[in-house]
Amino acid sequence: MQNEKDEYKVHVKGETGEVVCKIIIIGDGGVGKTSLLRKYIKNQFETDYLPTVGVNISKQNVHHKGKDYNLLIWDLAGQPQFFLLHKVYYNGANAVIIMFDLTQSASFTNIKNWHKELVKYNLKDIPIILVGNKTDLKKERKIIKPMADSLMEQLDISVYFETSALDGNHVNAVFEKITEMIAENRK
Ligand SMILES: Nc1nc2c(ncn2[C@@H]2O[C@H](COP(=O)(O)OP(=O)(O)OP(=O)(O)O)[C@@H](O)[C@H]2O)c(=O)[nH]1
Ligand SMILES: [Mg+2]
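Above: the input record for the complex with guanosine-5'-triphosphate. Below: its predicted structure, written as tokens.
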């Protein structure tokens, strides 16, 4: 019988079959997780803030170096009332996008807490991308690149993107990179 831990793990259907991967997006409420994903999948942006309830799962098929990847992207609620569900949501993740808002210092400080959860659930060694979102709000920016560099060193994260879900800055690049990292990690 399949054990609980293997339930979501990557599987390949045949020699040339598609690879199914689970990506989770985490970070404080309001940093733009749902917006980033909406921009990537639908090329749309909503100005209203509708906090995610629990989790939204989106599916995207991508092609990378001759292989098909079926990305199951779990967009997690950042609001504290949903934290009890994390254990279930994190289960079997193949990669993580950990996000903060470049204009909200608290969301940047909290990255350490989100990272602690990854350690707690034994996920710190899977591909991780740090994302600072809302580059379009230039005047409100509080976090500059050297601050992100220093955090990455502390947390041993090697990939960082600055994005805007509003104008699309680096949005596709995040998902292309994470697919590449998943592909490398499977070798
Ligand atoms: N200017 C600007 N606003 C953004 C950007 N990304 C998201 N927003 C706005 O920020 C607010 C929150 O965005 P969401 O995507 O709902 O945030 P979230 O991280 O999914 O929040 P939770 O679901 O509560 O965890 C919304 O009003 C969005 O329109 C961005 O890149 N630039
Ligand atoms: Mg959301």
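Notes for the reader.
The chain has one domain: 4-186.
The pocket of guanosine-5'-triphosphate (ligand 1) is lined by residues 29-35, 46-49, 51-52, 77-79, 133-134, 136-137, 164-166 (CB under 6 Å).
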